[in-house]
Amino acid sequence: MLFYLLSFLSLKKYLIFFTLLYRNKIASLSIIFIIIFILLLYGTDYLIKTHLLEKFFKNKVTSSIFYFIVILLITEVIGNILSKYIEKTRLLKTSSLFINIIKIFIILIGGLIIVQYMGISITPILTTLGIGGLAVALALQDTLGNFFAGVNLLVSKQIKIGDYIKLSSGEEGYVTDINWRFTKIRDLLNNVTIVPNSKISTSIIKNYYMPITNLTILIEIGVSYDSDLEKVEKVAIEVAKEVLKELNIKSEKEPFVRYREFADFSINFVVGIEVEEFVQQYMVKHLFIKKLHKRFQEENITIPFPITTVYLSSPN
Q: Which fold has domain 215-298?
């Protein structure tokens, strides 16, 4: 018991340190952990003295239950560690489907080991599972279709968690999760759309994050026919650079102007501005239109109203 006491005192020292470090967030958990630790110490000591521990592991049923619980705990720990590792190293974006597949695989392997440990042959079990799996596959075609479509989405890496996508059916937003049945898409208003994986796999998808997140937005503008086009181009580029600087957007391409057509009442052109991420375009357009309108007024550059000129002639 002296060893247990020293271990408890040492553990208590560390718990006090972490409690002070994290303050009240961890204090209650620390107290619970101390109580559990003490119970485990005295419980283990009691089991050893009464030889109950030896009897427990001699019984294959109780020991198998114990091993199965251990496998469940190990599965949870491995799943959490793997999820954190992938997120930290950014190898790929984690999804619930990927983590669940790993957990199910570990549980199945552990279950087969326990069955073999109990002296039961696993060959008939595997045969039965194979025949039963065929019947289940026929009964759950849609569900399995969604499952394999989700696996295909993860393996192909054409869609990842965090990507901003738009489906041919009109749904668009950030991909927040890909699970065994459906994919969650969160739009800019924080509404979540749930789309079956099979629908996504057969849909035409525009991924705004591939191959890179940078994209160029085009803003259409028209000026009157008596405008100095060189001056218009210079002013528009200056305003675009000012907007990028104000929003702290690091663009790899310089803003540009491209004249497009002689329209009915204006000379139309587009201003191209590169942004780092899809949603930045809305604030860029907002500021650019405000600043360009003000600057055009200062420079006496006219944005004409839609007009139609009608010529009338008398019969004479």
A: Alpha-Beta Plaits (3.30.70)
Backbone angles phi, psi at 205, to 5 degrees: -120, 135
Q: In this structure, which amino acid lies at residue 63?
A: S
Q: Is the model's pLDDT at 202 over the cut of 80?
A: yes
- Cα–Cα distance, 3 to 79 (Å, whole number): 34
Is the model's pTM score more than 0.85?
A: no
Contact (CB, 8 A) for 27 and 16: no
Buried b (16+ CB within 10 A) or exposed e, 280-295: bbeebbebbeebbeee
Whole-angstrom CA distances from 142 to 97, 148, 169, 255, 302 are: 17, 10, 20, 48, 59
CATH 3.30.559.10 fits 142-207, yes or no: no
Q: At which residue do the structure tokens 């994986």 appear?
A: 197
Q: Identify the residue with better confidence: 229 or 198.
A: 229
